């Protein structure tokens, strides 16, 4: 857009874009406004690197020079910060203070968790989308509403206690630009926080939803093959399931999702014996 565009023209251009269906003031390319200078701001900025070069906290090992040196530094820092968190509130504060992941800069909110800490069932999703980024809570958009209906169908809800209780978090606490998939570096550097999150929440079983959660927790993707098969993640029984966003796009898969939900319900009811064992 021209720099000398006057107010009326700028307003008309914005109005026109809204008419066309634009809902967010974002460009095609991410712009790192922390690094913006008047000169750098003029041309289209290149995508920001995934890792911010911040010093490791005291006690963290010094990174080795090399291609993935800063990733290892970021992972070490996350491990140290996560290990130091003694409860969920301190873990949330530690994540809010983690400066190695660029996603934080483009996000409105840290999306930490929802539901009941201590619930027997912990659901792990992928990453916040637009609605979650605005609300600061996981699974509040269309996929989240479907998730709530799925849980209700087996007598569970985020605001319920006892065996109907559920606790929900994501692999990434910040929204990736344009809802792209989490990349391997982002998963690696945020995994120590997720692991600590699970330890502190203390569920009896995990429900990884979709490929990113399976990649993070099981080290493998391929949800079509993994779903419905009991496995172990972080030392806990885990049942991979289709992600609700996928079920919205492929409603014919709801049948398998329903079978998985019934398996979860049976497991919780029967005191933790995976069906078939
Ligand atoms: N999809 C996710 O994986 N997590 C959310 O919080 C919302 C949508």
Describe how the helices and strands are arranged.
Elements (H helix, E strand, L loop, with lengths): L6 H13 L18 H4 L27 H16 L3 H9 L6 H4 L7 E2 L5 E5 L4 H6 L6 H12 L12 E5 L13 H18 L3 E4 L2 H8 L4 H4 L4 E3 L2 E3 L5 H6 L4 H16 L8
Parallel strand pairs: 2-3, 2-4
Antiparallel strand pairs: 1-3, 5-6
Helix pairs in contact: 3-4, 3-8
The protein binds uracil.
Keywords:
277 residues; alpha/beta; 4-stranded mixed β-sheet; two-stranded antiparallel sheet; 6 strands
Question: Describe it for me?
Answer:
This protein has 277 residues and is of the alpha/beta class. It is 42% helix and 8% strand. The strands form two sheets. It has a four-stranded mixed β-sheet. Strands 5-6 form a two-stranded antiparallel ribbon. β5 (231-233) and β6 (236-238) form a beta hairpin. The protein has a domain at 108-269: Uracil-DNA glycosylase-like domain (Uracil-DNA Glycosylase, subunit E, 3-Layer(aba) Sandwich). The chain is built from twelve helices and six strands. α3 runs antiparallel to α4 and α3 (69-84) packs parallel to α8 (184-201). It starts with 6 loop residues before the first helix and ends in an 8-residue tail after the last helix. The longest helix is centred in the last third of the chain and has 18 residues, at 184-201. Residues 39-57 and 61-67 have low confidence and may be disordered. Uracil binds next to α7.
